[in-house]
Design goal:
This protein is of the alpha+beta class. It has three helices and four strands, in the order βββαβαα.
Length: 106
């Protein structure tokens, strides 16, 4: 990746995957993109443990921002210091009717 690196973590318990997380790093930021947790290990809190390990690594690498990605979860609520609203704008094909109307309007 030109702009950053793949960020990946996993926890195994008794040879089985308990939690997996993938993301990207860029400059001083970590962008968490996907987290998967095995509900069979819920009592061990693998998601919270994995996020804690990721945050420790981000601090060790002197990252200044760890973006937890979309959606709410217990793990995110436990570790976040604040939330920030994110908006997504999908830009239509400029050759479509919708795209031409948008271009004419703006």
């Amino acid at each position: 990746l030109e702009e950053g690196q793949l960020w990946g973590w996993a926890i195994r318990i008794d040879g089985q995957w308990a939690a997996i997380s993938l993301g990207l790093t860029s400059q001083d930021n970590v962008f968490s993109l996907l987290s998967i947790y095995n509900s069979d290990f819920h009592k061990f809190s693998p998601g919270s443990t994995l996020l804690m390990l990721e945050l420790q690594q981000a601090v060790a690498e002197k990252k200044t921002c760890f973006r937890l990605g979309p959606g709410a979860s217990f793990q995110k609520n436990r570790w976040q210091t604040h939330t920030q609203q994110t908006h997504t704008l999908l830009i239509p094909n400029p050759r479509s009717i919708r795209g031409r109307l948008l271009a004419a309007y703006y």
